[in-house]
Amino acid sequence: MAFLEASAAVFLLIIFKVLTMRAAVPLVNELNRTLSEKPKVEVSIKSDSIPELEKMKNEMEARKYILENIMSSRTYTTARLEDIAKLLPENMWLSELRYEEKVDKKNVSKITRYLNLKGYYLINERLGDKGVVDNFLTKLKEAIGLYNGMAKADIVSVKRMEMEGKKVANFEIVFTGP
User: Fold this and answer.
1) Domains present along the chain, CATH in parentheses
2) Is the pLDDT of residue 150 over 80?
3) Which terminal residue of the chain, N or C, has fewer Cβ atoms less than 10 Å from its own Cβ?
4) What is the largest CA-CA distance in the chain?
5) What is the distance between the alpha carbons of residues 152 and 113, in angstroms, rounded to a whole number?
6) How many CB atoms lie within 10 A of CB 118?
7) pTM of the entire structure?
8) pLDDT computed for residue 8 by the predictor
9) Are 115 and 71 in contact (CB under 8 A)?
10) 119: closest CA among 155, 150, 146, 143?
11) Residue ranges of the alpha helices (H) in 38-163?
12) Are residues 158 and 171 in contact, defined by beta-carbon separation less than 8 angstroms?
C-alpha cells in the first residue's frame, strides 16, 4: 500500500511539474521579448577611480545638455508648409522648395535656418505683374508658422519669360535666420 501511495505521489508531482512548466513558457517568452526590446545602451567603465568617473559623468552631462538644446530648438515644417499652401496665389506655383537647418558645432544652441522658394507665376495681361512677388512675400512674413525663427527674407530674383506661349515670371525668395 505504501508503494502505491508513493507511486501516486510521484506521478502527481510529475503532472504538476509538467503543468507548471507549460504555464511558465509564455512568461519566459514575454521576458525574453521584453529584454530584447530594451535599449542597448552600454557604458564601459574601465577605471573605478573617482576622477575618471567624475570626468565621465561630466562628459555625459555635456552630451545630455547638447541633445536637450537640439530637441528644444527643433522646428516642425508642417506649419511652414501649410502657410505656404494657404498663401500661394491662384496664378502662382512652386517649382522648388528647400528647407535646411544647421546646428553650429561650437554652440549647439545656435541653429541656422534656411528656406528657399522658387517658382513661377502667370502674368495677368490686364493687371501686369506689379508687386505680385512683393505681396506674396509680405503675406509670408505675416504668417507666424513660416516666419518663426527666420530673421531675414529677401526676393533674390524675378525674371520675365515665355513658357508655352504665355508670359510668366520666374521668382526666387530666400528666408534665413538663426
Assistant:
1) 77-177 (3.30.2000)
2) no
3) N
4) 116
5) 10
6) 16
7) 0.55
8) 93
9) no
10) 155
11) 50-72, 77-87, 132-142, 144-147
12) yes
